[in-house]
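Workshop exercise sheet. Pairs work together: one partner reads the sequence aloud, the other fills in the structure field after running the prediction. Swap roles for the next sheet.
Pair: D.N. / O.F.
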Amino acid sequence: MSDTQIETDKKHESLLDLFWLLDSNDKSAALQGISKILSRVSQKQKEKESELESDIDESLQKLSKQLRRDEQGKHCIELDYCIMRLIRGLGTPRSEVRHTYSVALCILLAQYRLIISSSFVLLVMYEQLQISHQLKDKERYDMRRGRMLCIMSLWKSGILLQNKQEIATDIIGIRIQIAETSIEICKYSYRINYKGTIILYYQRQQ
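Structure field:
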């Protein structure tokens, strides 16, 4: 974990405690963690929207600039942090924890799909699930698998269908990412029909 990640976690210590529940093998505890995280983000997002409606100072709308370059201050820091932390968690080698993080991410993205862009999610994915030659083969595999789970959460959340103009750009990045992902996981292909709807094809490797 980088120094930047450690520093970010410290700033969100109260939220980070809830993520420990997601790491639990106890399903009821994990579900409780998801519920508490969603509740906390909902509260902070309502406060953020209230601030924006009150026409607050422009500087306050530039929070978390590094992670939210394309979101123009539409959502609160807590929402940014939870998206970042959930995507990072998709790279864990623990299968049960991966599933919990994937479900939580999908629910969170779906809940705020009107203000979260697919470009932002992909940006965070590339930052949090980096694949480098310094990683061991197993670690690279975990990162690739995490990226695939992130893409599936993005797809299931409905964000990709919010902005047809954005789809054309992001779908290129997604196809490139899928091409780079290990064929051991699965094969995906996307196309856009004449109405701009993305059709997903999924084929398990025989």
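Discussion prompt: Helices lie at 3-11, 13-22, 27-53, 77-89, 95-111, 118-128, 137-157, 164-180. What would you look at next?
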